Fold this protein.
Amino acid sequence: MNREQNELLTRIGPGTACGALLRQYWQPAALVDEFNGAIVPAMAQRPVKAVRLLGQDFVLFRDGAGRWGMLDRDCPHRGADLSFARHEADGLRCPFHGWKFAVDGRCLETPAEGAGSTLCERVRQRSYPVLEQSGVLFAWLGEEASSPPALPRFDCFTAPASHSFAFKGLWNCNWLQAFEVGIDPAHPSFLHRYLQDESLEGAYGRQFRAASVGEVAGERWPMTRVMREFCSPQIRHEQVAEGLTRLTTLRVMSDSLTHVRVTHAAFPATFVIPLSESITITQLHVAVDDTHTYWYSFFTGFDAPLDKEEMRRQRLQGVSLPDYLPLKGRHNDWGFDPEEQRTRTFLGMGENDINLHDQWAVESMGAIQDRTREHLGSSDKVIMSHRRALLQAIETVRAGGRPPLALTSDAAARCTGPDTIDCIAPAQGWEAHWTQAAAAKRAGAGWLRGANPPKVAGTPAASSAEADA
């Protein structure tokens, strides 16, 4: 990749070409948990939060009627910071001169202007649509006169609250390198390699500690062993619908057995991967600015209800509230322990949270990776394909077109799934085996029973639905 292309794909502020592309999609702005007074005590009295997205500053709040609002952060009067505004039942009041704004940006009062003034009728603060979905508040940052797309009917957006949990964290790097680590099927055999296995009983909510679906010689293999012993996978990728790519990673175990890992990449910055035999992770990446990125993970359970308190407890150990900032980073060498690296893990940065492993990988590249210095191999084929798709989508938006997965409501309703799995399959017939195993997982999901069977991405019906988008 040349320097001009690298600049084009990594700069996302107002007025940039890639920024214009990303503004064609709903962007995660905050967790609903961030407004939960039991988790962030200050929110019990004042549900107001400063937010930065795509290089712009906003204030996100909930009014006394429970309505969400997101406004530009600078007061339209004299530019004071509205994240410090007084929270009132019907909106935010700027402490500088008392101007008050509703969730839709209407100016309700300009008290210093005196009786009879109609100034507030001629003032409006830019407001942005907010959508509460699956524990996350999404914001639409597109042009003011434009209409937002519909979210696809992915499992993470359709599962009930009992089977859904959302969390987030900040990485100090550009959005593209943050996303690319998740569409790299080769790295788990190294970056997330554990030198010993452990009992599967303590694996809940911990990626690569759980078991793969299936057995070898009567044993259920932990994913740690599969990743460790078979580190040179065959990687296949196919576009199963516009903007949706299936990644199939095969690790040949013997003449008769193959490990199959199926994940998906959803344009422009989402991947869908298995956490365990019954839980899927859908992870979105939103650029705060050119050098900071929040990842948002949606956990979807297909079996018993999720133990959300335990999953939250596990993950809160690695961040500081209220902004979910990582406790480890470049400032303390990401917690690197050379003794651990020698005896317990390939990386040496902890055994409980693989997000820290990914954090080191993407932050250690620098705030914005210099891709002109890369030497890519065949295991990077998915990353190369996605970069080409980004360049094409930027040109589509420049020409006034609709980019991949910016869906109409009808198309979004037909965009379901996608399936993920880790399974041990027969070397001959592994395709049929994994699809049957994925179907069995879905059949065991009580919240899917009675609903219309989801279309598996890649079937003719699903492909044609995306073509209509």
Notes: The chain has twelve helices and 23 strands. The chain has two domains: 25-139, 153-467. Confidence is low (pLDDT under 50) at residues 450-469. The CA atoms of residues 238 and 386 lie 11 Å apart.
